[in-house]
C-alpha cells in the first residue's frame, strides 16, 4: 500500500514528465500505439538524439518501457491505465479552463 508521501512523489514524477511539451506529445503518441524511436522522431519532427533524451526521462519516471523486438527496440506505455489517465486529465483540463495559461515565477507560460 502506498503512503501519502509516496503517492505525492508518484504524482510529482508524473507532473515532471508532463511539464515538457515533447514528452507530452510522446506520451500521447504512445497512447495511440507502441512505436520505434525512428518512427516517433519522424512523427514528432525532432532529432533522434533529442527523442532519446526524452524517452530516457520517461523510462526513468517509469511511464514508458522499452521492449526488444529483434534487433530493434519498441516503446510503449508502462501500463495501459496511463493512456486512460492522459485522456481523463486532458478532458478535465480542457473542460475547466481551455483559455488559461499558467505563468511561472519568471512570468513565462509554464503550461
Q: How many structural domains does the protein architecture include?
A: 1
Q: Can you count the helices? A: 5
Structural class: mainly alpha
**CATH class (first level) name:** Mainly Alpha
- Beta strand %: 5-15%
> How much helicity do the residues have?
55-70%
The helix/strand series, from N terminus to C terminus, equals HHHHEEH
In CATH terms, what is the fold-level topology?
Answer: Arc Repressor Mutant, subunit A
Q: Which regions have little confidence, pLDDT < 50, spanning 5+ residues?
A: none
CATH-scheme architecture: Orthogonal Bundle
The fourth-level CATH homologous superfamily is Winged helix-like DNA-binding domain superfamily/Winged helix DNA-binding domain
User: What is the tally of beta strands?
Assistant: 2
Q: Give the averaged pLDDT, no decimals.
A: 86
Subunit structure: Homodimer.
Domain HTH arsR-type: 3-100
Function: Metal-responsive transcriptional repressor for the cmt operon. Binding of cadmium or lead causes the repressor to dissociate from the DNA.
Protein name: HTH-type transcriptional regulator CmtR
